[in-house]
Amino acid sequence: MIELNTFKRFLAKSEVNRTILILILSFVIFIINPFFYTGPNFRLLATWGSIHAIMVLGEMLYLIPGGIDLSLGGVICISNVLVGVFVIDNGLPIWLAVFIVLLIGAAIGFSSALFANAFSPPLKFLLPVFIYTIMLNFVLVGIGRIITGAFPIYGFTESYSLISKAKIGPLPITFVYLIIIVGIFSYIFYFRPLGWHIFATGLNDEVARKVGINVKKTRLIAFTLGSLLQAFAGIIIGSYLSVGSVLVGPEYLLPILAGAFIGGISLAGGEGSPYGAVVGGFAVYLIENIIVVLALPSFWKEVATGLFLFFFVLFDFYQKRKRIFTRA
User: Fold this and answer.
1) In the chain, beta strands by DSSP E
2) Which residues pair with 98 in a beta bridge?
3) How many other C-beta atoms can be found within 10 angstroms of the C-beta atom of residue 156?
4) What is the residue extent of each domain of the chain?
5) pLDDT digits (tens, 9 = 90+) for 40-60
6) pLDDT tens, position by position, 248-262
7) What are residue 83's phi and psi, to 5 degrees?
8) Domain boundaries 17-26+35-327, CATH class
9) Per-residue exposure over 73-102, b if at least 16 CB sit within 10 Å of its own CB, e if not
10) pTM for the whole thing?
11) How far apart are CA 260 and CA 57, in angstroms?
């Protein structure tokens, strides 16, 4: 009986349910087109699913403490562009260019938290974050266009491509990055006080203040790490494509937000997990991959993403309603 109850509790977890649904969907696609379960497609799923998951993890670090990051497209854009500017135009070593860009990404997140903290209170925290990050998104993409003249930057060496295309055994390097990042944030979220502070801040920042949590400091740390991950994702994408381009980045904003919601990360704050972010990230890329495998026109991607998100929201509502009636 104990084992049965444990199994039921395991199946009741939101992230597990989402994983099961995604696996069922992938099996249905395999029946339609067996190419879906082949080595080349698995490598694509592992590589790009991991990149999307890293972006959702960055968004998660804004959402759980009660914010939202609408600058992620701009951060990804300016990150891959600046690596090109530093390496190709100014002759910096790749490792130094990557390090500087990561620092710039972290500084962007730090500035977002500083601005939001300055106006909250009296304003609700979400409002200044929304305004500042959407402003940043436009500004960063605009700066990228000014720097490059809207022309892509080419000429990277093979060593830059290794950041995204190397392998460790059979595993793509991007998947290894993801495992390390998830491990780090799982440890922070569940075994360190900072993790509980992030959740408490998102659930109710007033109560968090009363129990002694430094809410402003918590959000500074979370936002800084969030934009750091977005900058890292921008570097990986630029490395994979071997280009620095302003066209890379802006298109990810809505899909990554959708991925966060699919992964069970709440817009209201205080709810989510690193594993849920991984599920959401892979789900978003899975949709794109299915469109390709089934040879459907690319503009079906937006339709499929919207319907997929709507389905998961309904599923989430059903699960919550079921839990409420069960308790009653």
Assistant:
1) 167-168, 171-172
2) none
3) 20
4) 17-26+35-327
5) 888 999 999 999 999 999 999
6) 999 999 889 989 988
7) -60, -40
8) mainly alpha
9) bbbbbbbbbbbbbbbbeeebebeebbeebb
10) 0.90
11) 8
